[in-house]
């Protein structure tokens, strides 16, 4: 049997697929970060299962224990507390070990805090960058903001509510006008999405909020990114002046520069 990597709700317990529920019912064992947390989901959907903890502190040990069971044909499902195992959560080690041992791996998709926040922010574009959990410390954050200054698309990050005020102050000091969205408690009863400039949201979050937070940053306003886009728009204009349809010109320049085609088209109007 393949290792089944199962996405679970990021908040609302109804946000789980029928395939995931069927897999959890059929599994010989369900590996989970916190057995108490996963049991709440299972009880909500009337599922009885054998649970085994699998978290960052015992990941190596559990991988060694579970791999022979997978080889022997046991049905193993892997979940995290929320979202997709292996993405900023334990699981990647077991997936790599299973594949290296010739055990097939199947992924059952589901809710994503990253994509939910990105769309809810209103900052979605043709590309985005996922930063995982933001680094701690002022110097590390300042270095990240400098790196992202020339990034011309949105970026998504996880941040703890306790560190959010300091993170927003750091970003506001680097790029006060950068568009930002703070997405809190996504899919839950008190879901909140606050949008504004980095300076505005730094002033709004003087104290840590409650609940889990996903931070979405709009495109950087660095000189490198701006110059790149100006050059691309000039190229579109030259092609249009030469008789090429604007959409076709934007498509060609997009392929050459990697900038979003739709943005080039709209900006060149």
Short structural description:
The chain is an alpha/beta fold and 269 residues long. It has eleven helices and ten strands.
Set down the secondary structure blueprint.
Blueprint (H helix, E strand, L loop, with lengths): L2 E4 L11 H9 L2 E4 L2 H10 L6 E3 L5 H13 L4 E3 L13 H9 L4 E4 L4 H9 L7 E5 L4 H11 L6 E5 L4 H11 L4 E6 L7 E6 H7 L8 E5 L5 H19 L4 H12 L3 H8 L1
Tell me what the structure shows.
The protein is 44% helix and 17% strand. With 269 residues, the protein is an alpha/beta fold. It folds into 3 domains: 3-108, Tetrapyrrole methylase, N-terminal domain (Cobalt-precorrin-4 Transmethylase, domain 1, 3-Layer(aba) Sandwich), CATH 3.40.1010.10; 113-217, Tetrapyrrole methylase, C-terminal domain (Methyltransferase, Cobalt-precorrin-4 Transmethylase, Domain 2, 2-Layer Sandwich); 223-268. Strands 3-2-4-1-5 form a 5-stranded parallel sheet, with helices on both faces. A 5-stranded mixed sheet has the order 6-7-10-8-9, sandwiched between helices. α6 (138-148) links the parallel β6 and β7. α7 (164-174) runs antiparallel to α8 (198-204). The chain is globular and about 65 Å long. The model has no long low-confidence stretch (mean pLDDT 93).
Largest sheet: 5 strands, parallel
Number of strands: 10
String of helices and strands: EHEHEHEHEHEHEHEEHEHHH
Structural class: alpha/beta
Strand content: 15-25%
Give the low-pLDDT segments. Answer: none
What's the CATH topology label of the largest domain? Answer: Cobalt-precorrin-4 Transmethylase, domain 1
CATH superfamily of the largest domain: Tetrapyrrole methylase, N-terminal domain
Q: Could you tell me how far the N terminus lies from the C terminus, measured between alpha carbons in angstroms? A: 55 Å
Q: Determine the number of helices (DSSP H or I, runs of at least 4 residues).
A: 11
Mean pLDDT: 93
The CATH architecture of the largest domain is 3-Layer(aba) Sandwich
For the record, the CATH class of the largest domain is Alpha Beta
Give the overall form.
Answer: globular
For the CA atoms, what is the radius of gyration? 22 Å
Considering DSSP H and I runs of 4 or more, what fraction of the residues is helical? 40-55%
Number of folding domains?
A: 3
- Spatial sequence of strands, sheet with the most strands: 3-2-4-1-5
